[in-house]
UniProtKB/TrEMBL annotation:
BP GO annotations: negative regulation of canonical Wnt signaling pathway; positive regulation of endocytosis; positive regulation of epithelial to mesenchymal transition; receptor-mediated endocytosis
Protein name, UniProt field: DAB2 isoform 9
InterPro entries according to UniProt: DAB1/2_SBM, PH-like_dom_sf
Sample GO molecular function, one term: cargo receptor activity
Amino acid sequence: MSNEVETSATNGQPDQQAAPKAPSKKEKKKGPEKTDEYLLARFKGDGVKYKAKLIGIDDVPDARGDKMSQDSMMKL
């Protein structure tokens, strides 16, 4: 029996092979490229309603306007 142990150790390769490496975070698969068409299609519609509290003041050129309101809220 001791001969079997010696021969398996002397053949140059260990009995157990190393386990394959797990993919690191850098090698993680990325999602599809986000093109302009994809983003426009994704954000069309009314969206989701939510409550928020804005703190701050931002001067706006007009009294109304969705784009202007959105830009102003993003600054705050």
